[in-house]
Amino acid sequence: MSKVADYLQQHLLGEILTSTDVRDYFSKDCSLLSIRPAMVIYPRNENDIRKVLRFTWQLAQKKHFITITTRGAGTDQTGAAIGSGIILVLTAHLNRILELNSRTGLVVVEPGIILGKLDESLHTHGRFMPVIPSSSEYSTLGGAIANNSSSSKITKYGDYNQYVKELRVVLSNGDIINTRRLSKKDLNRKLGLVTYEGEIYRSIDVLIEDNQTTINQNKLELKNNLGYNLAAVKNKDGSFDLTPLLIGSQGTLGIISEITMNTEPFNPETFLMVASCDNTINLQNIINEIKTLSAQPSSIEMINLNLLEDAAKINPNSLKTVVSKPFSKFYIFIEYDLMSDRNNKKYIKKVKKILEKYSHDIKMASEIKDKEKLWKLRDISSYILTHNNGLNRSVPIIGEGAVPYNNVGKLIDGLYDLAKKTNIEPILWGHIGEGIIHLRPRLNIAQIGDRQKVFRLLDEYNLLIKSLNGTISSEGNDGRLKAPYLKQNLSPELYQIYQKVKQIFDPYNLLNQGVKFDTTIDDLKNIMRHDYKLEHSYNHLPRN
Ligand SMILES: Cc1cc2nc3c(=O)[nH]c(=O)nc-3n(C[C@H](O)[C@H](O)[C@H](O)COP(=O)(O)OP(=O)(O)OC[C@H]3O[C@@H](n4cnc5c(N)ncnc54)[C@H](O)[C@@H]3O)c2cc1C
Fold first, then answer.
1. Ligand 1 centroid, distance to 428 Cα (angstroms)
2. Integer Cα distance of 442 and 459 in angstroms
3. CA 247 – ligand 1 centroid, Å
4. Which one-letter DSSP state was computed for residue 373?
5. Domain total for the chain?
């Protein structure tokens, strides 16, 4: 590989590192998996990315294959930011805000920017980005778009599909395309191009035309990152947009080098309600009734008793002045933002009535200090992520899926059963309004028994989500971890269609090879780490 490194160093402006220390560091992301790369490149600009991809494409034409993994901050929990060939790290150089229009809220940004930094700049212009994962203090915009990450404000603001308007993308052969919504006329122009871009537009168009029924039949009414978002490419009005295909594609179709996206007016004024609830029937009733309201809250979150008991054990003072024992079985958090909208005040009253029917001990807060105190309860989940109980650590293997909101009570019941069967603590929290409930089993993955348990948990979680018509990839994405389960969760036809999408964009399978496809359970066993720590993120408080 050093010949390749020497060659590339002559042609790139960015740095190429092959030392063992650097390769060791980048052999891990925040998943349970590890693969050591051959080299690490910090592209200085888009042209560097192009040159690397053109070079690996030309080598592939001569049957010499070097894979490329794009990496932001490496906080991916599915093993999608690691790979055996070249790792392209975008945080070092490709991290600038290129344009920011505070009137329209449109920003043009490079992918390696840390989301928290971007959001800070947006605030100074009276804007904000509502779709940011709780890792945003140390993760990048490019990674968030490639993973189609979620935030606690998902109920109102949705995901990146609502915000990203255009992407500049380096294709697997080094060509560059700009994706955006095209009219029928513009699409015809693209279809006529003799370049690789034209080939992609033609092939995707035909693929959708030939399989429209299968694609539409399999569309879920919830946030779903399983496979590719092909259903959003071609619209009824004849418009066509490759952007949704790239969002959530985890670097398997192309490398995003520039993002144009909308933002929201910054509205720090919020109103928070927190209530105690005793069972999943009442929790479900609350969600069902709130969902009938025409103005939805910005957040609907949940934590359970086990989470609080665990936090109280780890740090007894952490809950003092916020909540006292005995803890309730569940706490539900409902936030409305944009309080200048008088309508919202009306909806807060309606939500209060719903809460009064199905819960007790309702707390209402509009003052910052009161809200912060209550949100602290929800943020307690960060203790869980960092705490080690001897050699046991909270490992990210399950709990990133979603079910339709009207099945979320059954999901919670199912997670309690799963925890009992596998002898793990049922510590639960999540975006209950969107059917997303997290569970982080605490395991010692150096031990054979717990290593086996990882696969039992994956199998059982997969079956549970399937039985509730959900998706195993909603907040998180497929990565390597869930790749073996894709076939079971998609119809054979849809699985083949997604494979074709991959082949169209990346015929030599160079981009993030093993992510979403081509990873088996045996592969996972071979690349599973023997320790698990979140040390990459200890500068900040890891949250989920
Ligand atoms: C403690 C903790 C809390 C978390 N909380 C949340 C949460 O609240 N919500 C949530 O959704 N996720 C969460 N995550 C998961 C993760 O942080 C997010 O998915 C995050 O957006 C990933 O960003 P990153 O910069 O670390 O990307 P990376 O991990 O570096 O990469 C993620 C994926 O994107 C690809 N990629 C990166 N940049 C590009 C690019 N420019 N072009 C193409 N592909 C690219 C990579 O190849 C990889 O497949 C959490 C993780 C941790 C460890």
1. 22
2. 17
3. 12
4. H
5. 1
